Structures are given as C-alpha cells and as structure tokens.
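Thread: "does anyone have the structure for this chain?"

Original post by V.I.:
We have the sequence but no experimental structure in hand. Need at least a predicted one for the grant figures.
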Amino acid sequence: MSDNISTGLQAQVLISALPYIQKYTGRVVVVKYGGNAMINPELKRAVMSDIVLLSLIGVRVVLVHGGGPEITETLKALGKQSRFIDGLRYTDAETAEVVQMVLAGKINKDLVSLIGQCGGKALGFCGIDGGMIKAKKLDSGKDLGFVGEIVDIDPQPLANAIYNRYIPVIATVGSDKNGQVYNINADTAAAEIAAALGAENLITLTDIRGLMRDINYPDSMIPEVKLSEVPGLTEQGIISGGMIPKVQSCVKALENGVKKAVMIDGRIEHSILIEMFSDEGIGTLFTR
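Reply from O.Q.:
Generated one for you, tokens below.
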C-alpha cells in the first residue's frame, strides 16, 4: 500500500507541474548563477541537473555565471588583495587579465563539461566572442578601473545556440572597439542578456533567501517587491552592498520587457525547479 501511495504522490507532483511546463516550454529563461551554489559540488550538480531537465522539456535556458570567489582566490594566490566599491570589484589591468582567465577559461569550461556529464548539451561563450557584449568603462562617479558598462548586446550567437538546442553558458567579460577587456558584473549582464533575448524569466541565485529586511533574521525576507518600492528600500539601507547590483539587474530586466524577475536561495537543492513549478515559488519576486 505504501508503494502505491508513494507512486500516487509522485504522479500528483508531475501533474501539478504540468501547467508550469506548458507555460515555459519554448520560452527563454535566463539563470544568473553565482555564490555558494558554484562552490559546493552537490549544489553545483543539482543546479546543472535542473538546467538540463528544463532544457529537455523544451525550456530555452541561458546560463550566465559569475565567479567572484574563484577570482578572489586566484588574486590572493598572486599576492593581490581584492577591493570592492558599492558591491563591484575594483579591476586594474592585472585584475582584468585574471578575471578573463578565470571566468572565460576555467569556470566557463568546467560548467560546460558538467552540463554534458548531466546529459545536456552546452556551448561556452564570453562576451568577447563575436563582439557579443560591447562595453565601455563604467561611469559611476567612482574609479572602478576596468569595470565595464554594457553598450550593446548582439544576441544572435546565443539565438543560434538555442535554435540548435544547446544551452549557452556565458562568462561576463566584454570589450570595446579597441579590444580593451572589461569586467562586467554578472547580475547586470544577466539582465541585459535577458532583455535582448525577450526572456520570460530572470532567475538570480544568491546566498540568502532573498531580499531581507534584516540579514540577522531569516524570517524577514520580503516575498514581493514592486519597482516603485526599490528607491525607498535603498534609502533605508535594506538594499545595500552586493545586493545593489542584484536588485538593479531585476529592475532593469523588468523595465526592458522581461516578464518576471526573481531572486532565490541557491543553497537550496533544486531551488530553480521549486521556483518555476510551484504556486508559492521561493525567494523574492520583483514586479512592475
């Protein structure tokens, strides 16, 4: 009897997921991947398995990845201290070379390989490839070195990969017309890429449950944020530090036509599937 109950529950889960599968099949979903989910081997495999599953049921997944901890460790091994300003890494010429090496070289190809091990097909890109991400020096009022601001995105290489049923995996470095390489915040790039592809959903994996009113209280997560509420939350200091580019990316995605933007806890196994295939979702939803 217990086996029948277990089988029935499994069938019910699949039936419950059907409307969401129908909603997302054939649509583009951009996943910004970073934080602890990139470090923990079990979480990393769970994320890649989720992405492969989505791809196999017809969701056009695009994976945009960061790599901050590995960049920091590589710089540390070279005797170089990392410095952050408003959540963005200060990037001098040497750091720019390390960023390109770690993101476009090691991390990108490791993720492509892991997707293959999970039964999917992936192609690795960086923004320099084909001039896909055109950038210029970020003008923020503060000198961040070779931190880039996106000027234009050519989505055609990604569209070609998606059409041929590959999962694009994107390292967020870009270049200008003179070949200068820029370090581009992965949250910012994910929003621009989602907009350029007309994505249904932008999912940002973080190391916390979502946007928190007080980081010391796990139950203080804000489940939904309207765009009109963002300035006030920033003034209150609720949106600060490394959360600033994450929230700004969700805002920019929605302002540029992406239908949904959500920030979820990447430390929870299969959090992407929980978010996409349930009424309750998980994390903080940003809405117009």
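V.I.: this helps a lot. The longest strand covers residues 28-33.
O.Q.: and The radius of gyration is 19 Å.
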